[in-house]
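Example (one chain per record):
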Amino acid sequence: QVQLVESGGGLVQAGGSLRLSCVASGRTFSNHAMGWFRQAPGKEREFMAAINWSGGSTAYADSVKGRFTISRDNARNTVYLQMNSLNPEDTAVYYCAARELLGLYRRLTDYDSWGQGTQVTVSS
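Predicted structure:
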């Protein structure tokens, strides 16, 4: 498994933007499909975005399509989540996830490595 560390969370006003980063170590990053998930208080962890090994394919949850962008830099072992037009409903702990597969994956059970999460709070 790969080790993952997220950063970039914080407090932002509604309409603002944040960029989350997730740095991987321990395995060959470019062999891994990556995903971003979030979990709000009292709710289940839910899929946000996914990217394949090369960055050539991406997928998004309907709730964030057009506002969030996932990308990766294999030279830096990093995956990003650019979040724009944030609203209070986006408040959650955001997690990155990895699996040593080459495709594009949306389910929690598709991933076997998880970061510790970073808190995003959007004020109204």
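Caption: The chain has a mean pLDDT of 96.
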